[in-house]
Design brief:
about 0% strand; mainly alpha
């Protein structure tokens, strides 16, 4: 009863001696499923539409961009509550509403990345070969834009979740951390090779 954290019970036990970690995982399974499903839907929908807008351009790009601006101008929480008050409150509807509302940010990030990639030489060569829009999106742009979109998406999520007045520049912080790790690894490698050379000379 009320055991502290240990190797067997990572978060301890409750007043009946039950494992708190397993109870938290079991109780949060629906919440985690909704969060993962809505995030996957938002990223898939926003990325595909953003890439299509960058490749097709013209009226499709203008129409999608204005529609996304319209959705982003409405407060997300209020818009979601209004939609859920009209539609049935089921888990698929909740995932669909959250995915569509969150896909607007993914759309803007994906479109910005795809616009830069769309003017590169290998994409122009694919267009000259006569490749279709689907090939260009999924075989030329998607493999090159996926990592950048994910990185920018994570940066936006962490920056938006920080309280006002205390937001950090995640990109620069992570960049400085990676530079520091690289420098330490470089110095360690140099010291290691010098030590091996000294041992080789002595032997």
């Amino acid at each position: 009863v009320w055991e502290p954290s240990s190797a067997q019970y990572w978060l301890g036990t409750d007043n009946l001696g039950r494992d708190l970690l397993s109870r938290m995982i079991y109780g949060a399974r629906i919440t985690v499923f909704i969060a993962v499903a809505s995030t996957a839907l938002a990223f898939t929908l926003g990325s595909i539409l953003g890439f299509m807008a960058a490749v097709i351009g013209g009226w499709f790009d203008t129409l999608m961009s204005r529609f996304v601006d319209l959705l982003m101008s409405i407060p997300t929480l209020i818009f979601g509550l209004v939609v859920l008050s009209v539609l049935p409150s089921t888990i698929p509807i909740l995932i669909l509403v959250m995915g569509i509302l969150d896909s607007t940010r993914v759309y803007r990030l994906s479109r910005a990345v795809a616009v830069d990639i769309n003017v590169m030489d290998f994409v122009e060569a694919a267009k000259l070969r006569g490749e279709g829009t689907r090939w260009i999106i999924f075989r030329e742009i998607l493999p090159n834009a996926l990592i950048i979109s994910l990185a920018k998406r994570e940066e936006t999520i962490f920056s938006n979740n920080l309280p006002d007045g205390k937001k950090l520049d995640i990109h620069s912080s992570v960049g400085q951390l990676l530079i520091a790790i690289r420098d330490y690894a470089h110095h360690f490698a140099i010291s290691y090779h010098k030590l091996r050379r000294k041992k080789g000379v002595k032997s």
